[in-house]
Specification:
With 454 residues, the protein is an alpha/beta fold. It has helices at residues 21-30, 58-66, 75-87, 99-110, 124-132, 160-170, 193-205, 217-227, 236-245, 271-284, 295-307, 311-330, 348-351, 361-373, 382-385, 412-428; strands at residues 45-46, 92-96, 116-119, 136-139, 176-180, 209-213, 249-253, 264-268, 343-347, 375-376, 378-380, 400-404, 435-439, 450-453. Helix 1 packs across helix 14 (361-373), helix 4 packs parallel to helix 5 and helix 8 crosses helix 9 (236-245). The chain binds pyridoxal-5'-phosphate (PLP). Pyridoxal-5'-phosphate (PLP) is lined by residues 51, 98-100, 123, 125-126, 180, 184, 213, 215, 253, 255-256, 264.
Amino acid sequence: MKTIIEPFRIKSVEPIRMTTRAERERLIREADFNLFSLASDDVLIDLLTDSGTGAMSSEQWAAIMRGDESYAGSPSFYRFEAAVKNLMPFKHIIPTHQGRAAESILFAMLGGAGQIIPNNTHFDTTRGNIEASGARADDLVIAEGTDPTSLHPFKGNMDLERLTAHLEEHGDAVPCVMLTITNNAGGGQPVSLENIRATAEIAHKFGKLFIIDGCRFAENAFFIKTREPGQGNREIVDIVRDCFAVADAMTMSAKKDGFGNIGGWLAINDDDLAVEARTHLIRTEGFPTYGGMSGRDLDALAQGLTEIVDEDYLRYRLRTNAYIVEKLVKLGIPVVQPAGGHAVFIDARAWLSHVDPLAYPGQAVAVALYEIGGIRSCEIGTAMFGRQPDGSEKPAAMDLVRLAFPRRTYTQSHADYIVEAFEELQGIISTLKGYKIVEEPALMRHFTCKFEKM
Ligand SMILES: *Cc1c(COP(=O)(O)O)cnc(C)c1O
């Protein structure tokens, strides 16, 4: 059969509250044109993030009932730990309430003034935690990774030559080399197994820790299976194990490829570093056998981790994005190609060539999509990354709009509706105006800043 169906039936449904266009125009104005400030009841299709927004399976709900809330030594923790170690054979698994808590602990240990941390592309919370510690975050993705039209199969790859030069130049200031799979901020693009291994080798040659930000490890593994020579006949779990076998540590948001509504972890091989991390954990998150989670969360994740590596699920998951990207390309809308793992990315800078990057063309597209179709997306561009540590402003590498798909939540008719909204937007694109930021905090401003239409 050619049609790839959602490989599940629906057992429990949530109604969507319908809104009118006039209502939405008022609501987004009242939200200061920041989509994060909207009430989710006022959103028809919520593609703000794929983080923690997925549907849990009936087995996960059953696992929730199994959850044991003992403060110390809960069996839920041991089931969680075993499920993680089955995929990622690290020595110490340290549970946190989200990925950013793992990052915060990691950079409390490895960051600090004068330190420099390279990555293919740091995600916003990773960069935020590094900069908050006083360290610097450098992005060294391959050149194709910032070219929205390049069809390179692994656009998330680390630029190995630049990494080597970076380590030769900054040597002692670099405590670790990071690699984000898939590369979220760079369009959800995958990293090849070959590149993961080569990055690890370079890091180790220079005596640095190699740390994977593994938020979308399963999607990345499916890309490896389908795109990397010699990987086509392998099991997803074996590919996943190979990816992490060369790493010294990992950070994880279980709200992504953990099928969780909350959760994360920091995994480490080094005993001394693990002791230090657990000390931070107890102070900021909780006791080492629950971290920032409840026993119920731990059990839901233990089950989720067995489901996320299912090939039928991953095939359907990646097909959703490719389906929408194909339709948008036919409409002549500039999108990042090939389709990313968890999201569709619109190249707003190319689409709104009449809007200066410093007037946030991505924000203009995101607001218009909401007004037209009630679709909530997320600007990933100059509004998110443009503010420099010294307070000045600079265009980001790209101005993208991300439509991130919650896992197992929307169906094909939702996808067709999204395409229709884009078709309507295409008709008025030349009339869209830019935005200016009128109020912002010093770090990660996009979550709370206020915009005004120009
Ligand atoms: C979501 C995400 C994080 C942070 O995780 P949270 O659970 O949202 O705190 C870090 N890195 C990447 C690549 C992410 O996608």
